[in-house]
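Morning. Coffee machine broken again, so started the prediction first thing and wrote up yesterday's gels while waiting. Chain of 355 residues, entered below exactly as on the submission form.
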Amino acid sequence: MSANATPTGQQPTATYDSAFLKACRREPVPHTPVWFMRQAGRSLPEYRKVREGIPMLESCMRPDLVTEITLQPVRRHNVDAAIYFSDIVVPLKAIGVDLDIKPGVGPVVERPIRSRADLAQLRDLTPEDVSYVTEAIGLLTAELGETPLIGFAGAPFTLASYLVEGGPSRTYENAKAMMYGDPRLWADLLDRLADITAAFLKVQIEAGASAVQLFDSWAGALAPADYRRSVLPASAKVFRAVEAYGVPRIHFGVGTGELLGLMGEAGADVVGVDWRVPLDEATRRVGPGKALQGNLDPTVLFAPQEAVETKTREVLDAAAGLEGHVFNLGHGVLPSTDPDALTRLVEYVHSQTAR
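Came back before lunch.
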């Protein structure tokens, strides 16, 4: 079943005709829908207030807090979709991997995976492991009504990079050394992570998420041939695992201009594009049959409003011939962004694209 199919089973019908889901299905829309990666987060004073003194991972496991944080940008900015507040390492923490998110650093893994024996850290994820996700999405969908909720997960390559490196990396030397030097172990690691990721997305969809996004944040570090051989099979496995639900599947990475066609090939219905490639060129690289998401440079929001509107117009003009377009930034909202700039941006896109 593709994202163009009528929702079945437990899929929410209230959101089916929303501008966001119509754009994902490449259908006519009343206006170009807008949402922002990291729209719920440090750019909002209400987020900083509600999270004060609460560690990141704890905040991801409290349904009341997840609900409030996810709703904040919907209330403030009038975006066309909410995205579930969580972190890509949450399913790893849920299955017992010893890790923490350290302020100013990011996820840090106590025992990095460097050998086949280390794979024992990665057991299957069950719905009971993340029961707080099911509870939070139930609360959210009741509040959101006709506004779609996007579920998300980290892609196998990005999760593997954190697990093998032990934390964030600029060079991915350990991960790439495994990929090149022990391809069988690497393939087994990504395959196991694909199963965990798929299980995490299934929980979100079955709880009521209307779409899902797979974040392959660090895939831009790979050459196309390496991506095709060593990464694409695992990402494709994730997308196949959730295909039958009929919800749109979005695939996003940073610095992935050379990989856009391959990312679409992995099974996405919507390919996210960062700010480095214009959308008209991106659609040539991706090919027909896919919607695109993006792709205003997040730093543009620090410029005066006139400049923001000029750059936004460039994105909209480049998207004019697309089969489907979801407006977003080319990466996440930067923490020091003025929230009012985001609200004005949503208003501008809606007014300029009203049909």
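The first strand starts at residue 82 and ends at 83. Going to sketch it on the whiteboard this afternoon.
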